[in-house]
């Protein structure tokens, strides 16, 4: 089911939690809403579910304006961070819940419900655990039961709000892979909320980066990581360094010194801007006459195959702090002066 969010605004007591948000979700797609806490991810998900009504704008399910449809009418399944399984019900009864509470005419016969529960258990790889109670399951198993329960009603759209957020890192990683496989098998249109960039980049077909109630960028993992379109996206996803620069026809300047990069790769071609690059996208410059950024190593530390140097560049009184990756054999002791140049970068208007 295609879902289209059109120019949505959502106010809580006049405070806009979302402002003019538009998004087209394609049928069968796994999309991640990624952003810091408070950016409006949950609000957008709840609007799609029908748990909130928009202040302005519309939500379409396929060609139909679903803006005023109830949760039940929208036929969505959802899973939240804090698994809300019914403690007093077995796994099987939890999964069957959405079917057993259907109005009489739509309720499948008991044998049919049993058959579906069996199928769903198999789908989430929990066959054999149907008689257990939630407190007899691990956190990861409980979230898979929650997913099976959401799937039981054969939802048109699956909405997942930080479903693995309460689990420890190792289980979270396993479930992430598992969910991707599950999605590829079942092909449900899925919207997944997370504040964890790694989770979003690994899992999603497309990532929607949100900040302060607005969408900053929509794209593949490669798009948002390699081609961030705003300073926010550049610094929110992955490690980055930034410096104030001046862009001229013949180069990019930091504190009136050319730094050896061309005035392209940016949203402006002249004037004051901010240069962004990633720590791994630099080379050391050994020729003292070649233009480069120059700074003093304040600390450096070894990672597995590389070394990270913290460098203060710029005037001694007001240095700018950047982190760069240097080869293990580089002279990068505290106090050393290093000269370097970004190999990939982007400039944005200041
Ligand atoms: P996220 O899920 O990205 O952390 P939310 O969608 O939960 O963000 O919240 C976005 C903003 O809307 C926040 O500032 C939050 O405080 C506010 N907000 C969310 N729900 C409500 C509500 N029911 N009443 C008032 N403010 C709300
Ligand atoms: Mg949230």
UniProtKB/TrEMBL annotation:
<keyword id="KW-1278">Translocase</keyword>
<keyword id="KW-0764">Sulfate transport</keyword>
<keyword id="KW-0472">Membrane</keyword>
<keyword id="KW-0813">Transport</keyword>
<dbReference type="InterPro" id="IPR050093">
    <property type="entry name" value="ABC_SmlMolc_Importer"/>
</dbReference>
<keyword id="KW-0067">ATP-binding</keyword>
<feature type="domain" description="ABC transporter">
    <location>
        <begin position="3"/>
        <end position="237"/>
    </location>
</feature>
<dbReference type="Pfam" id="PF00005">
    <property type="entry name" value="ABC_tran"/>
</dbReference>
<dbReference type="InterPro" id="IPR017871">
    <property type="entry name" value="ABC_transporter-like_CS"/>
</dbReference>
<dbReference type="Pfam" id="PF12857">
    <property type="entry name" value="TOBE_3"/>
</dbReference>
<dbReference type="InterPro" id="IPR003593">
    <property type="entry name" value="AAA+_ATPase"/>
</dbReference>
<keyword id="KW-0547">Nucleotide-binding</keyword>
<comment type="similarity">
    <text>Belongs to the ABC transporter superfamily.</text>
</comment>
<dbReference type="InterPro" id="IPR027417">
    <property type="entry name" value="P-loop_NTPase"/>
</dbReference>
<protein>
    <submittedName>
        <fullName>Sulfate/molybdate ABC transporter ATP-binding protein</fullName>
    </submittedName>
</protein>
<dbReference type="InterPro" id="IPR005666">
    <property type="entry name" value="Sulph_transpt1"/>
</dbReference>
<dbReference type="InterPro" id="IPR003439">
    <property type="entry name" value="ABC_transporter-like_ATP-bd"/>
</dbReference>
<keyword id="KW-1003">Cell membrane</keyword>
<dbReference type="InterPro" id="IPR024765">
    <property type="entry name" value="TOBE-like"/>
</dbReference>
<dbReference type="GO" id="GO:0005524">
    <property type="term" value="F:ATP binding"/>
</dbReference>
């Amino acid at each position: 089911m295609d879902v289209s969010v059109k120019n949505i605004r959502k106010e809580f007591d006049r405070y806009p939690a979302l402002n003019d948000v538009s998004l087209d979700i394609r049928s069968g797609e796994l999309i991640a809403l990624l952003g810091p806490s408070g950016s409006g991810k949950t609000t957008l998900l709840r609007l799609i579910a029908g748990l909130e009504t928009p202040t302005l704008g519309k939500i379409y399910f396929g060609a139909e304006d679903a803006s005023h449809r109830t949760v039940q009418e929208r036929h969505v399944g959802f899973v939240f961070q804090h698994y809300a399984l019914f403690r007093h019900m077995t796994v099987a009864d939890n999964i069957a819940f959405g079917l057993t509470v259907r109005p009489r005419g739509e309720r499948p016969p008991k044998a049919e419900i049993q058959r579906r529960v069996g199928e769903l258990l198999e789908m989430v790889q929990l066959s054999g655990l149907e008689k257990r109670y939630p407190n007899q399951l691990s956190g990861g198993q409980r979230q898979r039961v929650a997913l099976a329960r959401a799937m039981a009603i054969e939802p048109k759209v699956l909405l997942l709000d930080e479903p693995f957020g309460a689990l420890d890192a190792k289980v979270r990683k396993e479930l992430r892979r598992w969910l991707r496989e599950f999605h590829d098998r079942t092909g449900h249109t899925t919207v997944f909320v997370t504040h964890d960039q790694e989770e979003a980049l690994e899992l999603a077909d497309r990532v929607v980066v949100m900040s302060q109630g607005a969408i900053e960028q929509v794209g593949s993992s490669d798009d948002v990581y390699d081609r961030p379109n705003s300073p926010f996206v550049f610094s929110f996803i992955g490690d980055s360094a930034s410096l104030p620069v001046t862009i001229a026809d013949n180069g990019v300047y930091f504190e009136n010194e050319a730094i050896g990069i061309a005035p392209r790769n940016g949203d402006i071609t002249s004037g004051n801007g901010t240069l962004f690059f990633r720590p791994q996208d630099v080379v050391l410059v050994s020729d003292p006459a070649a233009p480069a950024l120059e700074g003093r190593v304040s600390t450096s530390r070894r990672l597995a195959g590389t070394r990270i140097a913290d460098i203060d560049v710029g005037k001694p009184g007001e240095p700018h702090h950047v982190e760069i990756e240097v080869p293990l054999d580089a002279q990068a002791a505290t106090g050393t002066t290093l000269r370097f140049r970004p190999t990939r970068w982007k400039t944005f208007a200041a």
